[in-house]
Predict the 3D structure of the following.
Amino acid sequence: MDTSTINIILLIFHYLFFIYTVSVIISYIVLAFFSIVETLEYQKKNRFVNYKEILSSSISPSISIIAPAYNESLNIIENVRSLLSNHYANYDVIIVNDGSKDDSLEKLIKSYSLVKVDYLVNEQIPTKPLREGIFKSTNPAFEKLIVVDKENGGKSDALNMGLNLSESQYTACIDVDCLLLEDALQKMIKPFLELTEVQVIATGGVIRIANACTIKDGKLLDVDMPKSMLERAQILEYIRSFLLGRMAWSRLNGLLVISGAFGMFDKKIAIEIGGYDTNTVGEDMEIIVRMRRHMEEEKRKYKVAYIPDPLCWTEAPDNYKIFTSQRNRWTRGTIEVLRKHRKIALNPKYKSLGLVSFPFWFIFERMAPIIEVVGIIYFCVLMYLKALRWDYAFVFFISAYLFTVVFSLVAILSEEQTYHQYKKKGTGIKLIITSLIEPFIFHPFVLYAAIRGNFDYIFNKKKKWGVMTRKGLSKKEAV
Amino acid sequence: MNKFQYFLEYYNGEPLIIQLVWMVSCFLFLTVIILIIYLKFLRVRLRENEKITEKYTKDYELLLITYLYAETDENGVSLERQSVINELEKGIENTFKRKIIVATFLKLGNEITGEMAESIHHLYSQTKLKKYALSKLKNRNWYIIARGIRELTLFHVKDAHDQVVKHVNHSRREVRKEVQLYLVNLFHFEGLNFLDDLQTPLSEWDQIQLLEELQKMEDQQIPDISLWLKSTNKYVVIFALKLAEIYNQFGMKDVLIELISHKDKKVRLELIPVLSHLHVIEAKEIFKNNFNESSKDEQIEFFKLLENLIEPSDEPFIIEHIYNENFEVKYSALKLLKVLNTTKFENLELTPPESDFVKIVEFIKNY
């Protein structure tokens, strides 16, 4: 290859990277703008909403909380109690014990006075068979509780079992180890009942990180900032993602994902599309994409709504091993979903789903780690060829870094002006410091996990869920 | 200085794109600094506001309690009460304090009932708070109008009726909802007159709120709902169906039967449980005749109605559907067959063994 060819290749690379970077920046600015507009609108609309009526109304629609559990013996009793404490008139809680090898079922039977019952299951979605069967409590105080013990089939299979069992109009799918605030169901059901021009098919909630928070008897008493930088960086990342990213996509009715930790669905639609896909690790994103695709194909007007209130608190990984394993799975999930539904991409038949949301996810989520790694390799090649202008590299690096910091600070600002959850003195400065150093100490691990996810997707197809070791939210009780 | 000049020379010698990136970097750097300072300032302000709000809330709560327990003459006036009013009036002039006063009024208003609640409403009307709430109705922003109406509702300001109803067809759903709640809260069933010519949708959420308010009323004399059942607005019909069920409107039987052929599926679906609740047996034959043309949801609802209104004469129809492809219909039909004719149910042929049919029969047998 002669020098001129190399120069042309380098020039093409220059422009490709430049265009990609500029489009990332523009898209983030646009998202931040829409997010602010949507947040203001949400606040105006909901500032004086009276939730008391829906709480006590006998005609409020029925909701089933479906919580799959696998080897959750450590915290299952407290977690179920928290789910049973929700302030809503018409709901039940379905705990699906997905072939746990520990004593989760025995503990539940003992603590909630469960007995095996005959239960007619309309198996609309195929699932693994029941193991010990279906249990209900003899204690009227726990009449809302249904416990199902089935053979292990994974999270999706357990959720599908819950969908088959539910007799409610709406289902809230939740990770059993999450802490739901008491008014969570009232707030999540609102969009389904409020909109008349379009059908709301799902509502997503914000997930907040409960590490270092004080929780007692299933109630969040105090919000604090963890000591470890990994946990703090995740707090910042969640604020950025949920308050800026998803809020904006909600405004554009382009949400492609509702967190698996907490989401509510119109059960009829969820069953119509065949429930959760058991062949993906990105089941939370997959079901939303499939629901949207179904609605578009049926030419029905719909919306995936989003509630920014901090209603669901969960435990985030506190060590790098578990963290990278979790992010590896998220990456594989995204790749699987985008590949499975590639027909949607740039297909005008799917309107904004095909022309905006899907391409965005492909270019800026799916491809981002790959492009970043190619960029690093390209940087090394330039160094090797002694073709690197250090002053240019420096100014580009500085502007990229500053943009990241600005975006994080805007997210913190949005959090402070809306929910102001981190009230303690000193937590503000901790969040600011995190936003300044996160690109150096957190982002490399995110990138590493994403690349490993890509690698595992291609070369390690058998890899499914990693193990998430939990300490348990109840361990953080006030002394 | 030399360094700066060196940088300027360097900058001027660079291509436009690099100059642009430098400019962007400088802009972002300044933005970072401004955001950090603003965040610091914001957090301090929020903390201070919380403290001040807490202090004022306590002060105003104390004032309101003093007002409520003050000795009064036969006209309800006293020096102590007047001094409370004067104190409140001073606070009302300030927007921040006014918000706290209103919130305190609301908080206390929710905690007390009877004469004391009336005293609070009276006090509200005596102060300038009412004037401020009324002025909100003229605001250009929909959320301020909605807030104003909410305040007038909570403090039972009936004489604002004419100003409030002007917004009954407001383009924003939130304002319309507040108007509806105002009318129902203050004028009870009479307030439902807005339904007569409602052109806009009435969401499920709004309907629940209205029904809950109505059920709190002592006077449960419901007006004639036939006009609403015949409304061209399907949301009004659905709401009227709920009223018919909750308030046992047996007299509406003929109008309800007419609705069986309503063009909107949602109306028809809401209608079936109402017919079941009101024991409108005449509806059964109409549904049976239209059964195959009905949607799956309507078929399921009709079988639920049959579970409530079953008669021996329904047996042939039931038998026709024990092998229905829909699980819920099949389950209902088999349950009903067991009630009507146990022998026939016991002698059903249980094949193929793994089918839904056998599963349901076995379940019902053990039920």
Observations:
- Chain A touches chain B through 47 residues (CB under 8 Å).
- Chain A has a mean pLDDT of 92.
